[in-house]
Amino acid sequence: MHFITRTARLSVAAVALTGLLALTACGGSDGNSVAGANDKIGVSLITKDSSNPFFVAMQKGAKEEAAKNNVDLTVASGKADGDEQGQVQAIENAIAQGQKGILITPNGPGVNSAIKKARDAGLYVIALDTPPDPADTVDITFATDNFEAGKLIGQWTAKQLGGKPATIALLDLFNDKVVSVDYNRDQGFLTGLGVDTKDAKKNGDEAKSGSYGSGSYTIVCNEPTKGAEDGGRSAMENCLTKNSNINVVYTINEPAAVGAYNALKAAGKTSGVLVVSVDGGCAGVKSVKDGVIGATSQQYPLKMASLGVESIAKIARGGDKPKNSDGLDFFNTGVALVTDKAAPGVTSIDTAKAGTLCWG
Amino acid sequence: MTVQSAAPGAAEKELARREHTPGQRIQHLLHQHPALSPAIILLLTVVCFTAVNSRFSNPAALSLLVQQTAVIAALAVGQTLIILTAGIDLSVGAITILSTMVMATLAAENGWPAGLALAAGVVLGLLAGALNGILVTRIGLPPFIVTLGTLSIFTAIALLYSGGQSIQNNRLPALLNWTGDGFAIGRFTITTGVLIVIGLYLVLGFALSQTAWGRHVYAVGDDPEAARLSGVRSRRVLFSVYAVAGLIYGIAGWALIGRAGAASPNAIVDANLDSITAVVIGGTSLFGGRGGLLGTLLGALIVQAFTIGLSLAGVDAQYRLFAVGVLVIVAVSVDQWIRKVRS
């Protein structure tokens, strides 16, 4: 029974260690109940996960703004993208601590009821990055207009083609689940290009060939990439197997674009192919500079978070609530087309400028 | 190349000859050659998809099938070793990503010479596997629990270490990108990464079928108590299996860099289940002691063939999931049926 005693001893040690960790973690939190002009205001930032550079940038923006506005910021996140339960717990903690507001990038509809509980308890809740479904679950959303982001790269592509036939590969995020960022960018791109998308909330229901306004188009594939390089590469290879004449490649984000470019390179087909993407992280901007990506739409996570912290601080001290941008169900934090090959009639910034605005 | 379990003895062959019904004969055939059923399935898959779309089996597409399968196939080598001992490894992807990020970061950010950075990444894989091995053999924890824990630990370390950022191939030295280089035989392209993976199969296949170590791995998986009584140092064999698996994951991480064109903390998200699926469809028993690497290789190819084939046919991804699920159930059922031959 040698093992049992040893295991028992280990268990005791493990429990003791866990307890110690819990104590340390609890040390720094104390709630606020009054919101005087000089009082600290408690705010939680709850991201999808804590490793994605996009969310790391958000945390940075929120921390800087919190210091300026005398805000006591708590940073929390789900364990991974999709972890709704972890976010629910973070929301419950914010309520228990008597905080004034929550900034959240919801992992899914599973957090909606916890958000409602927070609002019922008097907290002001702002969604960042993507509006929840339905959008009025939160007080307001600060987000990138992903449809607009897609539309910009679509318009740029149309100008670059100048009436030439477009043979298109669409490299999406998933094809086994429906996510708003996925269809908004994809359908925005096709709309910007001039293709009739039918249902703007559904990828792949448009006619496989037709006219994009000034020329004819063929859609070769809608392939999933999971937003990573290896997925982007396999997806592009499969598309090239279907049709080796692809000259337009839409990608959900820049890692997927890098993977797609490597597949094109391996097939010896990089020349004359337009690769476009969305995100505008520093690595992505460099990919545009290096010619791997033709154009990308840049979003501003830092701004989303700092505006969010500022708004809650203002409201808690009796200020006005922010309003949605015209014609949208969220507050638009802006998007800019990044390219070194500016197209006439499409507003863009170059990689030098984008490099000073990028995140990650 | 013989990469299945040790050939059955003469007495067993004699027994097989005396069986009468065709069912029993098939049962014996499948028992003797665990890779036979996945081979038949792969053949059927290729034939069916070619009938749907002739592009499926042109040399360029087949070389893609091989390249796309390579990394998962490499990981499945380690997974096969562990499943042969009746264990399971849930930390496959985590160890691979950790190795990848460490070798890329040391070379790109810390200015280490390419060879040293590569070696550090591979050795780290070995150490991570050895840690699993120690926890399984010395503390006596079930492999499922151990690797469930180290899955989280290694993933966390990889994410913290890399800051969640990919490192692109233009920042990496030639040696780390080398696995992505290739040469063409006609329209069939072979990359160095694929050759390395084939090398892994040959070396480990030889070790499993031709060495005492290999026989001990099967023995420990079949019946650890009987193995111990017949003089096999079970714990030592088990530890070596986890360490070797970790080493393989490190090498697979190198192949992954060339494949993806970057070292990415978000790559091979489905590696754990994909590697287990390849092993199971390949006819290796989850109960240990039966199966082999040739089956695993075929299993990995089958799964990827479904992905490409259905994509070419324009079918939704959900049908691939469905088909692979059915294959897994069929594979385990066949395994159970074959096991009856022994009783």
TrEMBL record, chain A:
PROSITE patterns xrefs: PROKAR_LIPOPROTEIN
Residues covered by the Periplasmic binding protein domain: 44-318
Annotated SUPFAM superfamilies: Periplasmic binding protein-like I
Keywords in alphabetical order: Signal
Location of the protein in the cell: Cell envelope
A GO CC term assigned to this protein in UniProt: cell envelope
Broad class of the protein's primary localization: other
Residue intervals passing through the bilayer: none
Signal listed as a keyword: yes
UniProt feature coiled coil, ranges: none
Leader sequence residues: 1-27
Top-level taxon: Bacteria
Family classification: Belongs to the bacterial solute-binding protein 2 family.
Name of the protein in its database record: Fructose transport system substrate-binding protein
The organism of origin for this protein: Kribbella voronezhensis
Origin organism lineage: Bacteria, Bacillati, Actinomycetota, Actinomycetes, Propionibacteriales
From TrEMBL, chain B:
Top-rank taxon, per record: Bacteria
Keyword Secreted recorded: no
A cellular component annotation (GO) from this entry: plasma membrane
Principal subcellular localisation of the protein: membrane
Membrane topology: Multi-pass membrane protein
InterPro entries per UniProt: ABC_transp_permease
Keywords, comma-separated and alphabetical: Cell membrane, Membrane, Transmembrane, Transmembrane helix
Claim: Membrane is one of the keywords in the record: yes
Entry's transmembrane regions: 35-52, 64-83, 114-137, 144-164, 184-208, 237-257, 294-313, 319-338
Annotated protein name in UniProt: Fructose transport system permease protein
Lineage: Bacteria, Bacillati, Actinomycetota, Actinomycetes, Propionibacteriales
